[in-house]
Amino acid sequence: MAGTLVANTINTDTGLFSTNNAYSGIAKAWVQFGDVGGTVSINKSFNCSSITRNATGYFTFNFTTAMTDTGYAPSGSAGGTLALNSGAVSVFQTPSTGVVVAPTTSAFVFTSYTTGGVPFDPTYVCISVLGN
């Protein structure tokens, strides 16, 4: 039987729909946070339980609801108060050695770098995660 369901609002607080994991092609998680003086402060987030600061500019993104596999694709940007403190976010990599750290279904690491390639604690970081 084929048909069309139209709804303006669907509310749920548990299960797949509460984390958008039932939909494909949309963000499965995101966060906007800042790191001031070594203290992480999450401003807004979805499916992000916490951000752990491991070292200067080096963080772990922890999912509230685990991803279905490790084939997800995080991306991000970082910015500071000075022109030198804006740069890139590198996922799955340690800052000191550049060693790749494999993602898990519950977390992944990332580093914020200045345009000169130096890890820094950004004023703002935005991360989004696409996947199944």
Would you write up a description of this structure?
The protein is mostly beta strands. It has one domain. Helices cover 0% and strands 45% of the residues. It is built from no helices and 8 strands. The protein has strands spanning 27-36, 39-46, 48-55, 58-63, 73-79, 87-91, 107-114, 124-130. An 8-stranded antiparallel sheet has the order 2-1-8-5-6-7-4-3, with no helix packed on it. Strand 5 (73-79) and strand 6 form a beta hairpin. The radius of gyration is 17 Å and the shape is elongated. It starts with 26 loop residues before the first strand and ends with a strand. The relative contact order is 0.25. The mean pLDDT is 84.
Output the keywords.
132 residues; mainly beta; eight-stranded antiparallel β-sheet; 0% helix
Q: How does the SSE layout of this entry go?
A:
Layout: E1 27-36, E2 39-46, E3 48-55, E4 58-63, E5 73-79, E6 87-91, E7 107-114, E8 124-130
